Amino acid sequence: xxxxxxxxxxxxxxxxxxxxxxKLHDLSNGVDFDESDHSSAAATTHENRRCTGLLAGxxxxxxxxxxxxxxxWAPAIGLYRSSENLISSELGEETExxxxxxxxMGWIFFExxxxxKSASALKDCLYILNALRTDAYAKTATKSFPLTQIQFRQELxxxxxxxxxxxxxxxxxxxxxxxxxxxxxFDILKKEPNRNRMEMSMVLHGKGLAYYWKNGEKEDLEQAxxxxxxxxxxxxxxxxxSDIGLASTYEQMGNVMVEMGETSAAVPLYDxxxxxxxxxxxxxxxxxxxxxxxxxxxxxxxxxYDKGISLYSKITNIMKRxxxxxxxxxxxxxxxxxxxxxxxxxxxxxxxxxxxxxxLRKSAVGSDHLKVASTLYDMALMFHKRGKPTRxxxxxxxxxxxxxDRLGSSVPVAETLQQLGNISKFAAQYGAAINFYxxxxxxxxxxxxxxxxxxxxxxxxxxxxxxxxxxxxxAMNKFGDCLYMRKRRLGEKHEDIASVLYAMGFTLLxxxxxxxxxxxxxxxxxxxxxxxxxEHSLVGDTYNIMGxxxxxxxxxxxxxxxxxxxxxxxxxxxxxxKASDTLKNIGNVxxxxxxxxxxxxxxxxxxxxxxxxxxxxxxxxxxxxxxxxTVRYDMSLHDSAMANYKEALEIRRDVYGDFDDRxxxxxxxxxxxxxxxGNLTEAKHHLDEFVKIRRVNKTKESAxxxxxxxxxxxxxxxxxxxxxxxxxxxxxxxIFKHIGLAKENPELARTLDNLLxxxxxxxxxxxxxxxxxxxxxxEK
Length: 780
Fold this sequence. Notes:
There is one protein chain. Helix content is 78%, strand content 0%. It contains 37 helices and no strands. The two termini are 33 Å apart.
């Protein structure tokens, strides 16, 4: 779904109520329609000077209507109930006036956000209207009010009740039911199109909203647009081209264009809506907030996200102070603010806005509403971007539960399963990821068939998962199936083809099949240049990975050629952070060529670019500092190197906390440097911190952990702490054997056994520094 925002606000606002509200209340004031039916009862009452149940019910009805007009909902409902009981006892339940009371109650429950009771009252109203027989009114027909007029009135009641029920169903996210009720209402109204044109426009508007809110699928959005366009034409015939009643339709048409990704087409529609609204001399508070909502949307479309956020914030303050806290409407504004924060990568603030939106939506429409599921889905993506997979997965699981309960096998459920697979993969929960992907794949095939693009998308994600698991052949098979589908549908020259070729090249890179890998990247590069031209982000990405491969093949001069192309493209199109990544890779190649000064220049410029874009407290800044510290150590600039490492350590502690493996890697480097410099106390402090973090995170079964334990043992042995030295060496040897290094290095294993039996300082120094080869860590 397009990230640019469109506000899915309920129909209950100025756009329809200024004209429609009176009609709804006229229908609720059913006593006016039935006055002739009860004339004799009224006369009897007058003669006897006593209050019958019918008159009392009529008076309660009028009083309830008056209270409803003043938004005194609860007292109005109480009086309507009393009216219904009294009139039913006099005339029976299946009468027009009882139906009108039920309609009024349904309308008021809707205003009170009690949608279940609203739906129930409206369905009871419709049951009565359908049960009424027209011939029962024949005796009341007159020349001025003939039977045809009575029949028209009765059909109009049904159409209005059906339309209101459609609106309720849409708010309850029962979109298919809403569309069905709107269509039934429209079928009645179109029998008298000249008399019902305004009502038909309103029904079409509501039906358009139901399609718009439904799933966000292209077909539904196209149907929504057709409904809004037809509604607009009806309104223009009645109202002209500048009436305030047209503004809501123009706005909703703009919203549809935004959702379809056609933001340029949305701008003139929003502009027309604003032109119409601004003609109002004394706009209401609600009209002013709607103006600000569209202005905020236009700001965001044009990239002025800060201005958009400022407008949205003002709207929420106005609603709180002056308009009453309309929960669903305020939730929509919070949703818009979250989307704007997403665009400027303020992910923490975006999450906060989504949380506010979620709280209000649960209160307004209940915890099992599809809008709640959508908000949870969006929150999950934000938590994922913030590196919080546990919270992301929790949100997605709740979203999935709601969507499965409400929609069954459907596109939103398949999308949720696929995202669950993606984030489970990121969190290294590979078994869960496989299950989610398989569920998404089966549902996509059921919904779209075997060869649909959405099936190919899931296959590509599954290929990536198999690559992560080291199942390279399976990964290549998944990618191959995906590629076959896409070539049949798209031909040879399309970015989706290049994307899967790139993924296949990456898998072969991981298999260390560099020549085959290169051929896939070359094919992807050719397609991307044909499709986008040279100056494009994806072309830069491809050159960058090709340079990396040439470096792996030790073709360093060729590597520099590709990396320089990537650097130039990324710089030219303003991708500063990506350019800094490529510059760091260029520095790595220079370091491999022993051109250390050139490497320093590259690392320093990469660091400058990252500080400029990200500030001083970001992991990418720490990453550049580590590379710079490593090459400076190579140049024997130990003090400068240590300063770089210590700054990197502080940054990573601030970003990740004290017990993250990325903090441990910096502790390891500092400890090794201090050990080599003979600063054993400092060295042991940092190496002990490394070990502590790895133990906490249960990531100690690795060669570098073994290495550091032997180094700690050496330090203890040098300091005369033989017992502590043997304890460190024993743990190291146990892990060394457990992870299979002893089989790969039998001679080293024998040496380590001997070291434990009779530690010799010369032997231990050779073992740790020579045979295991302790080196400073570069960053991948």
